[in-house]
Design brief:
This is Caspase family protein. It contains 23 helices and 14 strands. Strands 1, 2, 3, 4, 5, 6, 7 and 11 form an eight-stranded mixed beta sheet that branches. A two-stranded antiparallel sheet has the order 8-9. A two-stranded antiparallel ribbon has the order 10-12. It folds into two domains: about 240 residues, Rossmann fold (3-Layer(aba) Sandwich); about 300 residues, no CATH class. The longest helix is centred in the middle third of the chain and has 32 residues. The chain starts with a strand and ends in an 18-residue tail after the last helix. The protein is elongated and about 90 Å long. Helix content is about 50%, strand content about 10%.
């Protein structure tokens, strides 16, 4: 069941009267409510014109508690609103301006009332002055005192004006609501790929149009119930069966994240400040493991959809793709195969768009700022080389996320790589195993694209640095003190090996030597291999790739070979790779769909301590050594 409560207040008794708020409420009600499939119920939905506080409270309670199995509840309010003591109050017509807390309705009270009724999804649209003041209340949404035991409610908000701005009116109505209802009626296009429009993407579309000046649109989403079903998409090009399946899936949701809900939601709320992919993966995995397997896919999909808008505005250009990488691993490892297909397809599309946007922004930034990737800190001696490997890995993920890589996308990646090598080439260093996955993906992309110019420069720089440092590469996730020890030994060219800061065998050394062999750099490398004799390299072949993105240890087989015992030259290693190891790796992943394979690769870049060797294929040109 879908229920709308549309409220417009014009006839204020003790405050300035308005002329368009009731008209706005009627316009939204008319656009959303009807007898067609998946519109809001005309019997249960209500339109309130200039209600008192008592009337509004009573109507809200009756709508929510006299109806059961509410899939979507939406509250639209147009009228006066005010922020008092960092709380947003919406003003019914009998509000006294000198007694706001006593006579207006605080937004936290609305949230408590709504959460107690357990709708699957709740949407709040406030077209009023100061309406973004509800942002002050977002923190309270994460508290159990607000959500009670309603761990599963998906919540979305849109506010038409900042906390210190006014919401402008015209003869036709509020400027925001006019644009809002144009989209609902189909007069403006948003997208055609999904059967429902989410509240956040509508707000983003209005904001992108730039037709509303001096009025900041704000939106927040905490989606724990699958795709947001706010409104039917008039431009959806798919079948009715798809729409029905998505609605039925949300209606069946009985997710309970239990005692982990506070930790779970807090982790999501903190993402915009930056993300530790492994910590996020661990938190989500702990929460998802308490949920029935068939219920996990809609939850992961909802999180991705709900976070997409906020993540796209983050300072970290790649934050959105980093979070998607984690979610890809969760989908692959925790969701049944038949249930995750649709969600994975959507997530890969979002990943591709986010990568394209991030790389374009980075390309523009590097064109004007030669230090665009550097931080003003000595820590960049350690962090910049890792940052570069991560960005090159993100370039490769962008390539692997598409079955057909367009010329424009190819040029974008090429431009980014050229700028990185031209300006930061001296920071392409073999520092730590945290870099291994990024370089593996990048070098394999170069093999497939035929970009030998880029791959040879990167391999050459990495091999030279590894050789200069006696094939010593730092271990994963070193602490601050360990990083300092590693840098000290490197720049003093020390022969000592400080315990616990190096990996033997090193995954990064394995990547470097393997791609030296695959790129046939025999003449450049063979003569110097004697200086790093007895270096061991290791390949791990998982028994099952489905758990490649989870924190638990993987089950599989290690194949360790040693320079000077198992191979002596590049051609020897090349034979081992092409005739033995790569066929084994490719066979182990042969049952993976293209989408599942991408998820395994994306999650490997997120967690870093597992190498997706199965993405490295034996090319036709390599049959002859």
């Amino acid at each position: 069941m879908r229920i709308l409560l549309a409220v417009g207040c014009d006839d204020y008794q003790r405050a300035a009267k308005l002329s368009g708020a009731v008209k706005d409420a009627r316009s939204v009600f008319s656009a959303l409510v009807g007898d067609q499939e998946h519109q809001y119920s005309p019997e249960q939905s209500r339109l309130l014109a200039s209600p008192t506080a008592e009337h509004l409270r009573t109507s809200l309670a009756e709508i929510l508690y006299n109806n059961t199995n509410i899939t979507v509840f939406t509250l639209y309010f147009a009228g006066h609103a005010v922020v008092f003591d960092e709380t947003l109050y919406i003003a019914p017509i009998d509000t006294l301006t000198d007694r706001i807390p006593a006579t207006a309705i605080g937004f936290p009270d609305i949230l408590r009332t709504t959460a107690g009724a357990r709708p699957k999804q709740a949407n709040f649209i406030i077209d009023a002055c100061n309406s973004a003041g509800l942002g002050f209340d977002i923190g309270s949404i994460l508290k159990r005192t607000i959500v009670g035991n309603s761990d599963t409610m998906g919540i979305s908000f849109v506010a038409s004006a900042a906390a210190e701005e006014t919401a402008k009116e015209t003869i036709e109505g509020g400027r925001f609501t006019i644009e809002f209802t144009r989209i609902l009626r189909g007069d403006a296009f948003v997208q055609q790929a999904r059967p429902f429009l989410s509240l956040a993407e509508i707000a983003q579309q209005i904001q992108a149009q730039g037709t509303i000046e001096n009025q900041t649109i704000s939106y927040w989403t905490l989606n724990l119930q699958g795709p947001n079903l706010f409104a039917k998409n008039p431009y959806f090009s798919g079948s009715a069966q798809t729409t029905d399946r998505i609605v039925a899936q949300v209606q069946r949701q009985t997710i309970g994240t239990g005692v982990h809900v506070a930790e779970f939601k807090s982790a999501l709320a903190k993402i915009l400040d930056g993300v530790d992919e492994r910590a996020l993966s661990r938190t989500l995995e702990s929460a998802f493991s308490k949920i029935e397997p068939e219920q996990r896919t809609p939850l992961i999909y909802g999180l991705a959809e709900g976070l997409a808008i906020e993540l796209s505005e983050a300072n970290d250009r790649f934050l959105e793709t980093r979070v998607y990488n984690v979610l890809c691993g969760q989908l692959l490892g925790l969701c049944p195969t038949n249930a995750r297909t649709l969600a994975i397809n959507e997530l890969i599309e979002w990943h591709t768009s986010a990568s394209r946007r991030a790389l374009a922004q980075l390309n523009d930034a590097m064109a004007t700022d030669r230090n665009a990737l550097m931080l003003d800190s000595l820590s960049d001696l350690y962090e910049l080389p890792i940052r570069l490997s991560d960005i090159l890995g993100q370039c490769a993920l962008f390539f692997f996320s598409q079955s057909k890589f367009s010329e424009s996308d190819s040029k974008l990646v090429s431009d980014v790589v050229q700028k990185i090598l031209a300006r930061y080439g001296n920071s392409i260093l073999a520092l730590t195993d945290d870099q291994a996955t990024g370089f593996l993906l990048f070098l394999e992309m170069c093999r497939r694209k035929g970009w030998s110019k880029y791959s040879e420069e990167v391999i050459g720089r990495l091999y030279h640095d590894m050789h200069e440092n006696f094939a010593k590469c730092g271990a994963y996730s070193l602490g601050v003190e360990q990083r300092l020890l590693l840098l000290t030994e490197r720049y003093q060219h020390s022969f000592s090996i400080t315990k616990d800061i190096y990996n033997f065998p090193s995954d990064l050394a394995t990547v470097i030597l393997s791609f030296c062999a695959l790129a046939k750099l025999d003449e450049a490398v063979d003569r110097s291999l004697i200086s790093i004799d007895h270096t061991s390299i290791n390949y791990f072949i998982p028994d099952n790739f489905d758990r490649f993105g989870l924190n638990e240890g993987l089950v599989g087989t290690n194949y360790t070979i040693t320079l000077g015992r198992d191979f002596w030259r590049c051609i020897d290693l090349r034979r081992i790779l092409l005739n033995d190891l790569l066929p084994r790796l490719n066979a182990s992943s042969s049952s993976l769909s293209w989408q599942d394979s991408f998820c395994s690769v994306a999650s490997a870049l997120a967690l870093r301590d597992r190498l997706p060797w199965h993405i490295v294929h034996k090319h036709a040109a390599e049959i002859s050594l």
